Batch of 3 targets.
Target 1
Amino acid sequence: MITAPDFSLSGKKALITGSSQGIGLALATAMAKSGAAVVLNGRDESKLAKAADKLKTQGLEVAVAPFDVTDEAAVQRAKCALGEIDILVNNAGIQRRGALEALSLADWNTVLSTNLTSAFLVSRAFVPGMIKRRSGKIINICSLMSDLARPTTGNYAAAKGGLRMLTRAMCGEWAQHNIQVNGIGPGYFETELTAPLVADPKFDSWIRGRTPAGRWGQLQDLTGAAVFMASSAADFLNGQVLMIDGGLTAVV
Ligand code: NAP
Ligand code: GCO
């Protein structure tokens, strides 16, 4: 018998990396409002505490796990401290813009390690529990730059392109254990990461013209897809990346 889809996350524990602000905090808030007990993550403990307070004042179940997602030992310590989780959102990410020919190896490495390797490190830490329980959801926060490049973001595009393929690779290895791994590819959203672009009238005008919806993305625009992918309604969705970009990648 066909029933209404179940988007509830009640009884689930969700870890969202890089969730002291921006997209991560928005997704954590929406998941908490959908019933999940959420764990916020970031390196700056005071920022993390302020973010947790915002959720607590809304009566939401929240904990914090301050660790650097690029630090293998710190990720392992976090796994020991947190125990099992049901939903993992690999969201932590940074930008270090610059022309490729002038880009430092440090700026290359830090973007690849934060935006790509960290998804491997954190998923590797928590997936054994999901395998044992034959249940789990992993959501990788990709980008429209998983498919499209823009000058001065070569390191970032390489990382996000890799994250699309890592999403498929994780599906290939873990779907057999009833673990669903999918990605969300935001377009251009107003956050701290894009603040310099939002503040640039030329870029702002260009992105509004280049985006069929004619606007920057707002954080609420991402929450429906994230809660869906984290819920039992998406139990047969696997290895896919959903672009939420106002149509930007669909139209030249
Ligand atoms: P943001 O506002 O700069 O937030 C980044 C978050 O990640 C912060 O909470 C930051 O906290 C955390 N973080 C950074 N490095 C970390 C590390 N090594 N370990 C743990 N946490 C770390 O960025 P955002 O715009 O929300 O972006 C979130 C994700 O969405 C990123 O993966 C980004 O690539 C992706 N994305 C963004 C857009 C957009 O237009 N904004 C579009 C497509 C994709 P701490 O600095 O305190 O650690
Ligand atoms: C840039 C932006 C993009 C966005 C986002 C687009 O410099 O063009 O930082 O990389 O962050 O990933 O989806």
Note: The helical segments are 22-33, 45-56, 72-82, 105-133, 154-174, 195-198, 201-210, 220-230.
Target 2
Amino acid sequence: MLSKLVLIDMPATVLVGGFWGDEGKGKIVSHIAFSDKPKIIARGGVGPNAGHTVEAKGKKYGVRMVPSGFVYEDARLLIGAGVLVNPAVFLHEVETLGLSERMGVDKRCSIIEDIHIEEDKGDSHLKEKIGSTGTGCGPANRDRVMRVAKQAKDIGELGPFVTDVPLEINEAIDRDEMVLVEGSQGFGLSLFYGTYPYVTSKDTTASMMAADVGIGPTKIDEVIVVFKTFPTRVGSGPFPTEISQEEAEKLGIVEYGTVTGRRRRIGLWDGEYARYSAMINGATQIAITGIDKLDEECYGATKWDELTKRAKDFLERVEEDVRIPVTLISTGPGLEHIIDLRDNIIT
Ligand code: GTP
Ligand code: IMP
Ligand code: MG
């Protein structure tokens, strides 16, 4: 049995990826949104290089700019000042998903322009060596650091959405309302702590996500780090537990990137790296996705007792490796495919 955890409530929660991105943060965020009913769901992270997949009510969505918690219709949706905004991608998502009434963008978000995308796609160092997503994020963050970038408040079409994100969030926290902050990318892609130079253009740890949306470190209650049973990586760079494509196929694991369509490299569970990632993220809880990839008999399980011995042994090993309680176990891509151990928690 996994360890018990005492949770009173979790007003300010940050959720981040523990490996190299694509851990299934979108799926876990949408589950937490429907079960915990946050008043605000805010996005931190780099920008539209992210692709979050959410499957809810029989539909599959891929979002790059808006928070993946959008499927929970009662939350205000915000994009923090640290995030790069591509206005065309943002406006397209807001329009097609019908989010205009509840969406806000911090006035200080930096803007990705066409010239950034051209540079990202044309520069052989970024495109070929690093294997960037070609979405303009690296060049746009460079211009931000050089202090020549445009901000959201300068873009007319963003006018109706522009707001002060930290003010909205901190006022909500002071009223004891739940705020869920979702990160993008993953620990191994952090500019500070990842596998430099094969990383993204910003830190990706929980502290960064809090700073992105303007929450000070003393106000964060919970940090959930999402790991997948078989870590994946897209683009170049070290991946210590990587297996060959043939081995992955034998295990039935083939994945493609949401933004670039590139085939994801697959690896085996890396307990040492997971523990290091959880340490720097200050994890208080762990979510694990892809238990059905470990053992297909577990597909769709919603209770601990429905898991096979193999899956239970694996999850116990994860807790031993990381030394943080596993509270959420995803057993398939759908919103309903989840075991929420917080339900059994003594409050
Ligand atoms: P990034 O911000 O790019 O890191 O996105 P993300 O963490 O939201 O993950 P992404 O959607 O890119 O990739 C995760 C994939 O795994 C998606 O296709 C999900 O639908 C799928 N997924 C999530 N949880 C599970 C699970 O428990 N089992 C299976 N089989 N698939 C899952
Ligand atoms: P960039 O962020 O587009 O500059 O890409 C830098 C590196 O980060 C490349 O290896 C990308 O494949 C990787 N990367 C960036 N965003 C994501 C993501 O959301 N999921 C997975 N990998 C990503
Ligand atoms: Mg992704």
Note: The first helix runs from residue 25 to 36.
Target 3
Amino acid sequence: MPAEIFAGKFITFEGGEGAGKSTQIKRLASALENSGLSVTSTREPGGSPGAETIRGLLLDTAADWDAPTEALLHFAARADHFTTRIAPALRNGDWVICDRFADSTRAYQGYGLGLSMEAIETLYRVALGEFAPDLTVILDVPVEIGMQRMNARDGDPDRYERMDIAFHERLRQGFLDIAGNNPDRCEVIAANADIEIVTARIFDCVARRLGVTLQA
Ligand code: Z5A
């Protein structure tokens, strides 16, 4: 069955630890609202009541999920998030911005933990069918910079933040490969720069790709 055509646009943000996604999503959401659009900001894992329950299982530092179980949990959360929150908002004409989506499963559970892309794409089709983001912004920072940013924050590291440097390097390469394989959907933004400069790069990308004019 072909993908439903929605009235709104779906933008996902991806990247490794400390890439600056949350910071930049707030700025993009305000700019889109200032240009007259209705915006829903959400995140994964989570974003709907059912998916937030699953998020608690995934980020529990005491849990020891294997890669297939972890991917199943991420796609279970995503299916609920899509059905109950993302699709209704897009039908309503909202622009939906999501902090992480399926490329995070490809990068973390695929490149990071070694699950096959074939398995991940099978789960994708079960959860989402032919649906895909209109635009995926991949914020790219060197691993050590992302880790410095995370270490400077308060709070205990979650399961993924505790992984070693080699894991985080595989993630970074994974996101770059995903972008290279999906140039019509993805754009890599160099995010090791002042927050204002990164914002300007993202606004330029969104304006160019989706045809909106944005004021910083
Ligand atoms: N995960 C998965 O394995 N599979 C999946 O399918 C999905 C997720 C969907 C969710 O964590 C975890 O789940 C995630 C992947 C895994 N791994 N981890 N950890 P989360 O939701 O708790 O957090 P996150 O998505 O990883 O976000 P983040 O790394 O916490 O941060 P961020 O949103 O990218 O960055 P930020 O909060 O905007 O900025 C981080 C800090 O850097 C903050 O202090 C900022 O003020 C600072 N910052 C931001 N930009 C800059 C610049 N340009 N210069 C200097 N400092 C900056």
Note: Residues 15, 17-23, 43-45, 74, 99-100, 104-105, 108-109, 149, 153, 158, 160-161, 195, 198 surround Z5A (CB under 6 Å).
